[in-house]
Write a structure and sequence with these properties.
about 300 residues; alpha/beta; six-stranded mixed beta sheet; PD-(D/E)XK nuclease family transposase
């Protein structure tokens, strides 16, 4: 590596550390990096969230963040659950946060449900032994545009309208619901980027741990990987093609492409990215499209 290229890489890394820290400060519980840590490694916060969404008491015995479920079929698609919880009755619960429409597609819910079901029975077990499963999408918008806090999906018999009762449950949570009730207050907390603005003491402490205390390093690692990949790619490219005079342009392009990638993958809200890029939302969307990135749908 030439001295010039190393200098550009070092500059990019340093600048991206600043960007990462600013992004972390702006993250809410709708960002899956933060959400997976706050709930995925904490039974208390997970029980709190599930009690509000499922509207009953629930006892969680195991919970994991970013839990990868591998497909046993060669070439089959694997999935990673934001939060995978198991309650005392053996029910499996997948909790996902989404900020764009593609990530909350109804057929994704079906696929997640099937992947959890496939792991519930061992060889020789009866089908009737399979436990209930829940796939919960906490969506940053109102998925079905009816203004309701929840949308519960179950299979029914078309001719009679009766519930089929196979134990498969899908719940969409309206992240824009603002009612003066438990779910309204929970969704308000989900939109806060500062721990002291979160009404729930349990959530506030958990978010503060990953934003302001010892857990901040762990929370930033996934975002840092994006930053390093783009810093390296664009610093090398610009150093090779344009030399020293275009170093700053390479750094800027690397930063912008990192933001485009995070937005397109549903890991960062587009308005936060535009603010970080110091441009208007319209300008950011235009430059994102020109760079070949897809702007996620919101409904």
């Amino acid at each position: 590596m030439s001295g010039e290229t190393k200098e550009i890489l070092d500059s990019n890394y340093g600048q991206n550390d600043v960007i990462i820290n600013r992004l972390i400060d702006k993250m809410t519980l709708f960002d899956d990096n933060l959400m997976s840590l706050v709930f995925g490694q904490n039974i208390e916060t997970t029980e709190l969230l599930l009690r509000v969404i499922m509207e009953r008491d629930i006892k969680v015995i195991d919970v994991r963040g970013q839990d990868e479920l591998k497909n046993s079929v060669i070439g089959g698609r694997c999935i990673t659950l934001d939060v995978h919880a198991i309650d005392v009755d053996g029910r499996h619960i997948d909790i996902e946060v989404q900020i764009n429409a593609e990530g909350s597609h109804v057929r994704r819910a079906r696929y997640h449900s099937s992947m959890m079901d496939a792991r519930m029975l061992g060889e020789g077990q009866e089908f009737k032994e399979i436990k209930d499963s829940y796939v919960i999408f906490i969506y940053d918008h109102d998925k079905f545009r009816k203004g309701l806090p929840f949308y519960h999906i179950q299979r029914r018999v078309d001719e009679t309208g009766e519930v089929f009762g196979d134990g498969s449950h899908i719940i969409y949570v309206n992240g824009r619901y603002e009612g003066n009730d438990d779910i309204g207050r929970m969704m308000k907390d989900f939109h806060q980027c500062r721990p002291e603005q979160i009404e729930s003491e349990t959530l506030s402490k958990a978010v503060a741990y990953y934003k302001e205390k010892e857990g901040r390093g762990a929370m930033s690692e996934a975002v840092r990987q994006y930053a390093m990949e783009y810093a390296k790619e664009y610093a090398k490219e610009y150093a090779r093609e344009y030399g020293e005079e275009q170093k700053e342009e390479g750094i800027l392009q690397g930063k912008n492409n990192m933001l485009y990638s995070l937005v397109s993958k549903g890991r960062l809200k587009i308005d936060v990215a535009a603010e970080e890029a110091n441009v208007s939302l319209g300008e950011f969307e235009k430059s994102m499209e020109e760079a070949g990135y897809k702007i996620p749908e919101l409904v």
